[in-house]
Amino acid sequence: MEPTVSADGLDIRRFGHDDLPRIRQTIIDLHAAAAGPDRDDDFKKKFPWFVDHWGGNPAFACVIAYEGDEAMGFAYGAPAVEGREWWREHLDEAPKKAVTFSYSELAVHPKWRKQGVADKLSRALLEERPEDLAVLLVDVEHPRVQALYEDWGFRKVGERRPFADSPLYAVMLAELPLV
C-alpha cells in the first residue's frame, strides 16, 4: 500500500494486510524499543502473535512514522466484526451508530517521544475510517496514557481483562472522526 501522509512534516506511511510480511519486524522492533530493554514481561514475548493476529485480518490498517528510513512509531488496528462489539457490555445504552474500529496498538520509539508523534499516528490511523466509533484498551496502571487518549476524545466506559493472564484494562471509546 504505502501512500504517504504528511502530518506537520512527519512522514507517515499507510500499510495494510498484504504489507505485513515486509513491516512485521519493524513493528516488533519498535514495540520492543518502546517497552524498553529492562521490561521482560509476557506481553512483550507474546507481541509477535498479536501482530500476526491483527495483521491476518484482511482489513488490517497500520501507519508507521519515519524520519528518513528510520521508523519512529506505529499504530494499527482493524474493524470490529459488526454485531460483536464487545465494548457494548460496558454501556447501559449503546450508541445508535456503532460500527467500530478496534485500535489495537500504538508505540513510539523513546527517541521520538514527547514530540507529538503518538497524536499524529493516531490521527493518521483514524482520520479516514468509515466506522462510527473507535475502541481501545489501556492498562489501568498507566493513567498518563489513559489521559492522553482522553485528550484525543476517548472516554473510559469500563474495565476488562481480555485474557486470564493479562492486566486489567480501561475500555475506551471515541466517536469518529476524532476532534
Automatic annotation (TrEMBL):
Domain N-acetyltransferase: residue ranges: 10-175
Pfam families: Acetyltransf_7
Membrane spanning residue stretches: none
Domain of life: Bacteria
CDD domains noted in UniProt: NAT_SF
Entry's Gene Ontology molecular function annotations: acyltransferase activity, transferring groups other than amino-acyl groups
PROSITE patterns: GNAT
InterPro entries registered for this protein in UniProt: Acyl_CoA_acyltransferase, GNAT_dom
Name of the protein described by the UniProt record: GNAT family N-acetyltransferase
